[in-house]
Each structure stands twice: as C-alpha cells, then as structure tokens.
Amino acid sequence: MLLITVQFSKAAQQQNLPSLGDTTSGIVSLEQERALGQDFLRSLRAQAPSVSDPLLQSYLEHLIYKLASHSQLQDRRLDLVMINNFTINAFAAPGGIVGVNLGLFLYGETEHEISAILAHELAHLSQRHFARGIQSGRAASVKNLAGLLAGIILIATTGSDAGLAAITAGQGAAQSDMLRNSRAREAEADRIGILTLADADMDPRAVAYIFERLERANRFNKTRIPEFLLTHPVTKNRISDSYNQTRRYENKTFPLNLDYHLMKARVTVLAADSSDAAIDMMSGWSKRTDPVLRSAGQYGLVMAHLANFDPKAARKHLRPLLAAKPSKIAYILADAKIHSSAKRYDEALEILEEALAINTKNYPITMAYADVLLKANRPQEAADALVLLVPERPNDTEVWYLLAEAYGLANDIIGVHEARAEYFVLVGNLEQAIKQLSFAMPLVQDDFQLNSKFQLRIQQIQRMRLKARRS
Domains of the chain: which residue ranges? Predict the structure, then answer.
C-alpha cells in the first residue's frame, strides 16, 4: 500500500503539474491524467488478482463504452481492469482506468443496476474529480487522494483490513473542506450517472435500486461492510435524492437483458464453493418462469458441468439453448469448449472457424480459437490468429501472454522475446521487458527493420524505467 501511495503521489509531482496556487492553471491536463493513470495501471496489473475471461471482458467493455458514449467524458480512452474478487466494488482512477470486481455481478439484479455503478464511476472521470481535488486541496491533497486510492485498491484486490486503515488514515489527514468536497462530488457523480443512464436508454432509477440493495445489505450485516460502501457511503437521503432526480423521467418497463444474465450466471458459477453447489444453484435458476432467467440458469448448468469435468451433461443443457439462438457467442464458445474438453479438437475448431467467418477478429472467439489450436498442437496457427488481435488490443495482457506461449511452442524465439517484453511492460516489470528484447537483439543482427524496431522499443522502455525510478 505504501509503495502504491508513494509512487502515485510522486508520479503526480513528476508530471510537471502546474502551480497549485494558481486556480486558473491548477487543474491537471487530460494528457497528464492519462500518463498518471497508465503508470498506476501497470502497478495495479502487477498486484491485482487477474481474471482471464475474454467473454466477460468483452461484455463489460462493450457496456462501459456504451455508457461512455452517452457520458460527459472528453477523453474516452478507457482501460478496464477485472479483479478476481467476489465482493462488490468498482472504482475509477485518473486517466480512464475503470476497475470492476466480479462481485458486482453477484449484487446487480439487472444490467441497469450494474450500469448505474459504472455510470457513477464514469461520472467521477468526466467531472475530473481527481484534478479538482488537487486544486481544492492544494499540494497536500495529492498525497491524501493517493492514499485514499491506494486503500480502495487494497480492498478491491485483497479485502484486507490494511485497505480500510489506508482509507481511514487518508480521511483523517484530509481537511474538513476536502471531506465536504468529497461528499459533494459523490452527489455530483450520482446526478451525472443518472443523466448518462437516461441518455443511454437505460433505467435511471437503477441508481436508487442498487443503493437500496446495498443499504439493506449493510443494515443486516454489521460485521462486514461491503467494500463499495467504504468509499461510496449510502444514506437514506442519498437514496431519496436519487429517486427525486428521476421523477421527470417516464416510468418504463425494461426487459431483462439476456447477455447480462448469462454473465451473471457465469460469475455465480465461478463464485460457488464447489461445482456441485453451482449445479444445485443453477438448477434452481433453470426452473424460473422468466425465459431470460431460465436460459441463464441453463447456461449456468453448462458452465457448472464443464467445471465438474462432465462435458456430456453440459452438452445436454446447451443443446436447447443453441437451437433457440444458434448465433449467440456465449453458446458457441460453450459448444466449442465442450468438444475441446472431450479432446475433440477438430470439431471445436470447426465451430470456432465458422463463428470467426461471421465475426472477424472477435476477441473472445479468437482467444478460444487460439487456445484450442494450442491444445491441438498447432502453435503457429494459434500465433497467426493472435497476431491479428495485437493492433486491436495492444494493451491486452492476455493476448501477449498467450501469444508468447504460442511462439514458444512454435519455436519462434524472436517472437517469444518480443511478446514477453510487451507483456512485462503492461504489468510494470520494465527490467524484465528490457532483458527480453536484449536477448532478441543478437538474433536480429542481420534484419535491419527488426533490429531498429527493437532498439527503439528498448529506448522507450528505458525512458519509462527512468521515470519510474525518479518517482
């Protein structure tokens, strides 16, 4: 926690921030926020328990980008971090960093409720609360905000008491006017989040609904406050204000979103104590009267049986889902996984190739395709497929990690070192990134283009390392 705090606060000072005494220039620029956020993102990736689930990642990214397109964000370069923690939490950091705990899916009853929290976090970014905090709190607030953010991340990633201690210390160090500003910014984020939901044709009352749910959870469980409430305290007045702000909107009935409930079932199975417990839970879901919830339960049974190493049972539950919606990507991936689990790699590849012909460069399908190719001992083809994703997702750690594995199995040593270097850059291990490219340099002596490319990249990473050391 101390390392994150020191790095974050010093990094802010190293960004050549304008004079904090001048209110007209005291706001950090968008580019400074972006650079600061990328530094923080590397630290977060190195410490947070990661989630390797391209389908879930793709769903959340599309949802966040939909909300962002209807928000007041000026800079819509966003980086999503999914954290393998089943408590409810989400946070936004300067520079477009959005963090989401998997537990958000366990608490959100509808896509509108999870969107309410995401829209709230996007509002913190669009209203530039970090920069405004620096301006209102002067130089001391950089350290206080960094300590608060470090505590949030600790809670999000570990659930430890150290995170709560960091938040308490940060709040204790802040002046009373900063705390008043913080409460005002929470209210502002609520208001802007409601506007975002309405503009995105989603239920603006979902803000009040999720707050009510969290307030009830806190009321009946005093021993463990939900992590989200530690940084977003919910009161009766806040819930009432949320309802009052939505009075001007027409009362509409919003149908349940199948994609959301499929992802909710997916996370619920992951969070279950055992595959047997997941099967029991999903069996209950599959008996619900609503067709969306019933389908989500059936899909959950597919996932639970796969986790229980029973592809035959999984296939039985998937068959009616595929018959009803043969183009649904979640079902296609499940079908391919069933065949792959049974080592029927040719059948799995045929399914995925057909899907890719329709959904070119689709992220979750391509990742699944590469994974099956590796299992089928066809690493060069896996590498060829993954290379197509690199221009689309240059900052995706999972793409670079799997690409390095594919190159290794294909005996492409130069490719291995390059892919590993990019992976290490993204997780903040700059020393190792330089080493990987240095290992590749003797192998590309006679290739002017690659030699120049690697030399330039080493110089870029060295500058990043020097900056990190100074901070």
Answer: 2-245, 256-342, 412-471
* Axis crossing angle, helix 430-440 with helix 448-470, rounded to the nearest 10: 160
Look-up of token digits 């913190």? 124
Dist. CA 161–CA 147, nearest whole Å? 14
- Cα–Cα dist 145/132, whole Å: 11
Rounded distance, CA 130 to CA 135, Å?
A: 9
Give the residue among 41, 48, 75, 76 at the shortest CA–CA distance from 61.
Answer: 76
Write out the H or E segment, with its range, that includes residue 437.
helix 430-440
| Count of beta carbons in the 10 Å neighbourhood of residue 178 | 19
DSSP single-letter state for residue 80? E
pLDDT given at position 163: 47
Distances (CA, A) of 259 to 263, 361, 458: 6, 20, 42
Give me the sign of the Cα torsion angle 33, 38, 43, 48: positive
Give the tens place of pLDDT for each residue, 226-255: 555 555 666 778 888 888 888 889 888 999
pLDDT tens digits, residue range 18-52?
322 333 334 567 777 777 778 878 888 888 888 89
What is the pairing mode between strands 90-93 and 97-101?
antiparallel
φ, ψ dihedrals at 257, nearest 5°: -95, 120
> Cα dist. 78→46, 68, 352 in Å?
18, 9, 29
